[in-house]
Amino acid sequence: MHPLRVALYSHDTVGLGHTRRNLTIAAALSRRDADLLMITGNPEATRLPLPRRTDVITMPTIGKDAAGDYRSRVLSLSYPDMINVRRALLSSVLGEFRPDLLIVDKVPRGAGGELEPALRQVARDGGRAVLGLREVLDDPASTAAQWRADRTTQAIDEFYAAVWVYGDPRVYDPRTEYRLPGSVADKLEFTGYLSRGRTSGLTGGRGSVGQLDPARPYVACLVGGGQDGDALALAFAEAAFPQDHLGVVVCGPYLAAERRARLRQLAGRRSDLVLLDVVPGADAVIDRAAAVVSMAGYNTVCEILATATPALLVPRTRPRAEQLIRAERFAGRGLVDLLPPDRLSPGRLADWLASAVAGSAQATLRSSTSVRLDGLARIPHLADALLGVTEDAA
């Protein structure tokens, strides 16, 4: 018998969210006797710390243009030709790797349907497929329209043995929010949030937090991959920080060059502002910070909830309402604070930072919260149950 083989696919058109989520799942599964293969449309994945016995294959990249249409990010191929290249790569790799378990993030057919032939091959080879979904996709009307356009229900019925929702229904329940059909709801398993233990199994994950003086307290600003966080980063960089505290901005790899240059100008004018560019190490930055201002992407919120650090979420509201919905639900539980993006200003950030550093009830609430934050501990057991693996064999 060969070790368990697990493949994790993410289409990745914008940002690192899908890749980072699959990476944390791979780390959780790496504690089994398993070979793990990540397949991603994100070349930046090769810069991230990997679990043991995990390899990465990156596909030719696609993205969205200003009109919202998909296109090749680098090559001059048309979008249909690019999908054909990626489809052939996926079919070849998964056909040879023959995973026992294929975990697909968010897009059940893959971008442009590129994953369908490989899904059929995995099933013929006796493997099982799981669709992984963040808890909030978008507002209900937009989600329903997207599911109809993508024929998501049909894909789940045809290809997937289970749907793992990386959340807690007490916070957000897609079965009722999206009125999911019975055939889909019957396959749902709520893992809990992928929050606690995110760096377990990874190496080199503290990134450039080591550049910071351990004796100097700081407040931090995180903008995810940076592709749409420039307004928050600039407002933070212009805010007054609490006395004797540094301000640290984690820019992300996709922050526009002109915005990055503006941040450098601001940092050059003040001795209490530090810019960090690298992606690895966000967990450590949050954990050591006196307070954090952040967007409300899934991975960053999970990282925040795993700490006692007071947090203010400034969610994006376009092109999806996902971040706003998530921020509202957690703010309603007192686990974070919320600032709508149309109220964002350096003065409001400065006021919140001063208050948060002086004292916050969030840490107490998080330590006693009933929200499930142990999804990474549960996923190996869900995988074992799906594959019929006994605890002794695992």
Automatic annotation (TrEMBL):
One MF term in the entry's GO annotations: hexosyltransferase activity
Domain Glycosyl transferase family 28 C-terminal, chain residue ranges per copy: 223-362
Alphabetical list of Pfam families matching this protein: Glyco_tran_28_C
Gene3D superfamilies (alphabetical): Glycogen Phosphorylase B
Taxon lineage: Bacteria, Bacillati, Actinomycetota, Actinomycetes, Propionibacteriales
PANTHER family in the record: SLL1722 PROTEIN (PTHR21015:SF28), UDP-N-ACETYLGLUCOSAMINE--N-ACETYLMURAMYL-(PENTAPEPTIDE) PYROPHOSPHORYL-UNDECAPRENOL N-ACETYLGLUCOSAMINE TRANSFERASE 1 (PTHR21015)
UniProt protein name: Putative glycosyltransferase
Keywords: Transferase
Native organism: Microlunatus parietis
